[in-house]
Amino acid sequence: MIGTQSLTDLYVEVQHFHARQMQLLDGGDFPAYAATFTEDGEFTHTPQQPPARGRDGIVTELNRFHERFAEDPVIRRHWFNQLWLEPREDGSVQATYYALVVTTRPERNVTIAPSCVVRDVLVRDGEGNLLVRSRTVDHDRLA
Amino acid sequence: MIGTQSLTDLYVEVQHFHARQMQLLDGGDFPAYAATFTEDGEFTHTPQQPPARGRDGIVTELNRFHERFAEDPVIRRHWFNQLWLEPREDGSVQATYYALVVTTRPERNVTIAPSCVVRDVLVRDGEGNLLVRSRTVDHDRLA
Amino acid sequence: MIGTQSLTDLYVEVQHFHARQMQLLDGGDFPAYAATFTEDGEFTHTPQQPPARGRDGIVTELNRFHERFAEDPVIRRHWFNQLWLEPREDGSVQATYYALVVTTRPERNVTIAPSCVVRDVLVRDGEGNLLVRSRTVDHDRLA
């Protein structure tokens, strides 16, 4: 379905999809976040680690990752920018964009890091809704 | 009028509206900022405080708030991200998005805080232009 | 050609153009970045300095500017926000927007500065592609 859609419609749809998805993640609704992936979706949020696979796998990994905040309460907000879309021959769309994590700790101490480049492969389900088939997060880092 | 508009057109219109509105605010043109609200618009920029009401009330509140910078010169820029729109049955649109305030002080000292979630209720005037009926800013904060 | 295009299409096209352009710049592909300017394009990235002129001139200036990072390895990401477009009578478009430079140094030390306001004059080439005729970056600074 992406093939017949204008770039304008697709670009806005991806922005809107990302906005809802990250508001769900940052709000702590991990099952709803995982439901924005395909059934066999892959999520690699930390380089050099194997991806979390499938919706249950993604929820499990998010719960594991967030254990670090059990004794360190935070509010996290994921910001995206410079979204670049490349439709692919198989009907999927590759999205490449920048991301930053805004973290607020007590006393309104705000840190903004790491800086990341994210690559999504986006597809549609049977009803035409966007889903993430794979998401790979690369952190900016120097040796 | 929002009901017959495509989500694509609406989404871009809100982005463009926000961009102009915040460039006006950050440029210090408080009357022009207030004119982007309805006549009876409400603006709650600090949680737990009563909203500023009406265009004159918003200008008065902005002047009061900015007194703190009289002896502490700053340049402020409001950044928005992850815009999520929900059309409502009465024809208005609820916009939920993230905001950060980028503040530059002398010697190019830049701070970025607080992290906020903002909720707008947007309506149209008789000529079809977007206006804010209410804006509520919630600051990310932990006890 | 901009005259008959909807604001929605134009706005998304500029966002997409900026995204690709800045991914090229941040990826270090200066010739590809320069090719997004007109043949006689002007790029003023630092106030009070004369603009770099022409694609070769822009590449030369970028190489000169980046010499400062030869002994100070960094990854830089340019973020844009609050894009405001004004079509002009001659068919060009003025884009005014905020920019921040996100810089990652070793040990994942991230700094975000300076805060800038950028003004582009955008035109189309014979094939209808957007190009920058001029870009002027103003850094937020107080005396």
UniProtKB/TrEMBL annotation, chains A, B, C:
Domain SnoaL-like: residue ranges: 11-135
Name of protein: Nuclear transport factor 2 family protein
Domain of life: Bacteria
SUPFAM superfamilies hit by this protein: NTF2-like
Gene source species: Micromonospora maritima
InterPro entries the record matches: NTF2-like_dom_sf, SnoaL-like
